[in-house]
Amino acid sequence: MTTTSNGAIPQTMRAVRIHEYGEADVLQTETIAIPEISEQEVLIKVHAASVNPVDWKVRKGYLDGMLGHQMPLTLGWDVAGEVVSVGAEVSEWKVGDAVYSRPNISRNGAYAQYISVDQKEVALKPTALNWQEAAAVPLAALTAWQVLHDAAQLQAGEKVFIQAGSGGVGAFAIQIAKAAGAYVITSCSTRNVDFVKQLGADEVVDYTQQRFETLKDIDVVFDTLGGESLNNSWKILKDGGRLVSIVDVPDETVAAEHRVKSHFVFVEPNREQLDAIAALIDDNKIQVLIDRVFALEDVKEAHALSETGRAKGKIVLSVD
Ligand SMILES: NC(=O)c1ccc[n+]([C@@H]2O[C@H](COP(=O)([O-])OP(=O)(O)OC[C@H]3O[C@@H](n4cnc5c(N)ncnc54)[C@H](OP(=O)(O)O)[C@@H]3O)[C@@H](O)[C@H]2O)c1
């Protein structure tokens, strides 16, 4: 049996979907049926979603065949909202809970008024944050967490170099690495130097003035750029160092030649890690930085900003 909120849940909702891959004009705001929930799922009334680069990469078909998507597809895999209905086997969530989630990317996303999410992918929203701030957290912060803690196993006192510290992932990575006791070096352009210092960076490489390849004896490189930046990262690592990329798969043979380890991370939903991140946020150890908030209907503009590759912090869609 499903438990539902007293407030009536409508039959239909607004959602932004694509029916084919392409430029931003394939994003269509439509009225569709509210998703059904299985016994293990909760229905969340979405208050805010966020825009991540993966959204426009999916939209353009760059990940075609990799994630099991079917058209039409609702984009957006970051959500903050309120539980309005729970499946028969859901015991930990109840109607009215304020939650956030990075839901399964193989399924329909959160550019919509409602989303169904597996109960294991949901966590309580940090109490210090409003809906828009909370929606900005899950995907980017989980990525930073899984790179720094799971893949790199970053230790207190180690030196980590984080590429693009002013971006969605980088801004969380700086703060998560500092909370772990690491020495943080990050890169950005001149206009963002003060911003990343304010987030806790100990040293900043302004890439308009200095090449990051001049760094040396780094324990962990967090590559958020891929390509040439990844290829030039090996030589800045010390023996036994770790290179983790979230953009390109590093070559293990080259890693072995440099006596380092390498990893590729594709972020996964994780409730326990969302709880740990929420605790750091509520303890004032992590700030959430938003570049701009757009209305759901203005999603094309939000994608255009993300596609510039110059957003400062996160881009959010308000869904109320
Ligand atoms: N594998 C995964 O699970 C996963 C998860 C999340 C993200 N990603 C990928 O990781 C990448 C970063 O994601 P994101 O959300 O952080 O992107 P983002 O928010 O769009 O990053 C924008 C930031 O990148 C900085 N930047 C641009 N070029 C730079 C350069 N050459 N050197 C240093 N900084 C530079 C910009 O700073 P300036 O304006 O100062 O240049 C800007 O603040 C994307 O390709 C995304 O798809 C992968």
Describe, in plain words, how this protein is organized in 3D.
By secondary structure, the chain is of the alpha/beta class. It has nine helices and 17 strands. The strands form three sheets. Strands 1, 4, 6, 7, 8, 9, 16 and 17 form an eight-stranded mixed beta sheet that branches. Strand 10 (159-162), helix 4 and strand 11 form a beta-alpha-beta unit. The relative contact order is 0.16. The mean pLDDT is 97. It binds NADP nicotinamide-adenine-dinucleotide phosphate. NADP nicotinamide-adenine-dinucleotide phosphate binds at residues 52-54, 57, 140, 143, 163-164, 166-170, 187-189, 192, 207, 224-225, 246-247, 265-267, 306, 309-312.
Supply database-style keywords.
320 residues, alpha/beta, Quinone Oxidoreductase, Chain A, domain 1, Rossmann fold, 2 domains, eight-stranded mixed β-sheet, binds NADP nicotinamide-adenine-dinucleotide phosphate
